[in-house]
Amino acid sequence: MTDQPPYNGPLGGTPQGGAPQPPGYPPGYAPPQVHAQDHPSGTTVLVIGILSLVLCQVLGPIAWIQGNKARREIQARPDVLWKNEGMITAGWVLGIISSVLLILTVLFVIGFLVIGVFFAASASIEGMALAG
Question: pLDDT, tens digit, for every residue of 87-97?
Fold first, then answer.
């Protein structure tokens, strides 16, 4: 028969049978507390993204740019736990969607104007041919 230490579970434990200690920390010390914080642009990016989709598509590129800037700042600070990263991502995505819709709207209006000018010019040429 061999002498083996008692099994104290996957996290280990104390020889006296007390509560297990988190691995990597000396007895009596707890892991450091991580305090999450809000990114200053979080609410702004989300509100501009929503407004760009609902009211004014011109705000879409602003939400896209501000969201991209905030996302880069978050990625540059991996040591900080951000509470509102999801809000920034949502506003950024809404800004992208609104910007795409804005581009499609501008292309549609330009195409409509080109077709209108084409038909107006062809009607004018036909009118001159019939008169002459």
Answer: 999 999 999 99
CA atoms of 31 and 52, how far apart (whole Å) = 43
The alpha carbon of 64 is separated from its chain's Cα centroid by a whole number of angstroms, namely 9
Closest CA to 105 of 63, 45, 47, 52: 52
CA distance 95 to 11: 46
Instruction: Indicate the domain borders of the chain.
Output: 42-111
Task: Compute the distance between CA of residue 24 and CA of residue 39 in angstroms, rounded to an integer.
Answer: 31
Model pTM score: 0.66
Cβ neighbours of residue 58 closer than 8 Å, sequence gap 6 or more: 52, 102
d(CA 47, CA 18): 50
**Residue 15 phi, psi (nearest 5):** -60, -25
> What does the pLDDT look like over 22-74, one tens digit per residue?
566 666 676 666 678 888 999 999 999 999 999 999 999 999 999 999 999 99
* C-alpha–C-alpha distance, residues 115 and 8, integer Å: 80
